[in-house]
Task: structure prediction
Amino acid sequence: MANQARLYLADRALAIGSFLGGLAGRAGVRRLVLTHLIPDPADEAGEKEFADDVRRGGYAGPLTVGRDLMTVTVG
Result:
């Protein structure tokens, strides 16, 4: 529980996109969807910043930056 709490707080306090990118890359994630981003990207440039940070971490697969009311089909 303590590790989860630290990660939760880090998610709100730090830009952890590169951490997520590395984690997803090592885990072999086939598609990554970023949701509940803080701060919420205001435009496509902001979405690109999140995506670029994930890519710097090492994730090279398909990547979607979620938007309000977006629907993603899984499967």
Observations:
- The longest helix spans residues 44-56.
